[in-house]
Amino acid sequence: MTPRRWAVTEELDHGQTPATQGSRIDAYVDRYAARATGMVASEIRALFAVASRPEVVSLAGGMPYVTALPLDMVGELVSELVTRRGPVALQYGSGQGDPHLREQICDVMRLEGINAGANDVVVTVGSQQALDLITRIFIDPGDVVLAEGPSYVGALGTFAAYQAKVVHIAMDDQGIVPESLAQTIYALETAGAPIKFLYTIPTFHNPGGVTLNIARRQQVLDICQRAGVLIIEDNPYGLLGFDGEPMRALRADNPDGVVYLGSFSKTLAPGFRVGWALAPHAVRDKLVLAMESAVLSHSSFTQLAVGQYLATQPWREQIKTFRELYRERRDALLDALDSLMPPEVTWTRPGGGFFVWATLPDGLDSKAILPRAVAERVAFVPGTGFYSDGSGARHMRLSYCYPEPDRIREGVRRLAGVIEQEMQLRDTFGTGSVRDHQGVDTPGPDLA
Ligand SMILES: Cc1ncc(COP(=O)(O)O)c(C=O)c1O
């Protein structure tokens, strides 16, 4: 068969490997499945390769600060795992995940008020894979998914890959707005568009930095229950709150109406790639089958390593260490924004997690500003990546999880200078046209 059309591929070089050798012509351009058209590389990925240079303060990536882990101890634990339990750790495991780890996961979820049995837990390759499996079992092309606007870029990438139609629900500084949720469900039902699920990050939202308040939690549960809409509660940051006890999970109050997604990426380390889904029985069965068709079984090795860590190490203390470290960084970011940003810029004040969501003055476009910011040695993620409909140009995500507090302050100083210059240009020449964003950014570790 001779291919009819040819295209030059975009190389996905993350700046760490030499560019690939050979032809960049894609001989198979007209052979891809329709769903592959929804998979587009982020336009800003090339900029992030530059942003990872040491002279650039990156307020962009959401990388946990794993240096704060007792790495010697983790090393010993991993080494012992191979020498003592190698034949099990290096063997295939079950599609649902290691039974003992699933018990331990139930202990972790109890901190958020969830009372669940290990039998309803499916261990996944990070919660990102749980998102993929959920979407795989529920979504046909064109099906509707509800999600906050803005929403997690990795979830939007998955929904796009399965050709879902994402409808955004308004969010304010108290989380998703229940009236907006109810109205949207009503409008879609009236239009005859069945909703497959609501995807929500109620606690320490990525990228919004906001948390759904207690009163709204019950309202969201009630609205979805009345309408028969399943809730996917994505909660990787729930234990990283800076004040008080963890919030009660939505799943704690409706076991049949909520699929809960959890992860050890932020409370231990993303390198283990261990996350999970807690689902009603029937959904769990489908998830296990989907898991087996995707990867046969998760890595026994990393599951046992996480299990060993939880069994032998003071993991609650380690989470406290992370919380204190991220609180200090959050304070550094908010103090610097308060003292350095022009008054026309506004931002959220997170009570936990990794992110602040900033809103620029009218007429400024965060994606247009990014190359200038990188030239001034500071990076952020433009807001458009967090919407499936091209909006969000006036917003940016600032993350405080990775840089040291002094670097955060310096980054904000540089960013404030760039924004001030942009405002002057706007005042002199008028507003530029805000470009429409095409497609959905792929998640990529640099955007997580
Ligand atoms: C809201 C949200 N969900 C899911 C993920 C995926 O996490 P992981 O696959 O590492 O568990 C992330 C990662 O940043 C996230 O922020």
Automatic annotation (TrEMBL):
Keyword Transferase: yes
InterPro entries: Aminotransferase_I/II_large, Class-I_PLP-dep_aminotransf, PyrdxlP-dep_Trfase, PyrdxlP-dep_Trfase_major, PyrdxlP-dep_Trfase_small
Signal peptide: none
A GO biological process held by the record: alpha-amino acid metabolic process
UniProt entry keywords in alphabetical sequence: Aminotransferase, Pyridoxal phosphate, Transferase
Cofactor: pyridoxal 5'-phosphate
Domain of life: Bacteria
GO molecular function, one term: pyridoxal phosphate binding
This protein's record includes keyword Transferase: yes
Domain Aminotransferase class I/classII large: 87-415
Record family assignment: Belongs to the class-I pyridoxal-phosphate-dependent aminotransferase family.
Subunit structure: Homodimer.
Protein name, per record: Aminotransferase class I/II-fold pyridoxal phosphate-dependent enzyme
Species of origin: Nonomuraea phyllanthi
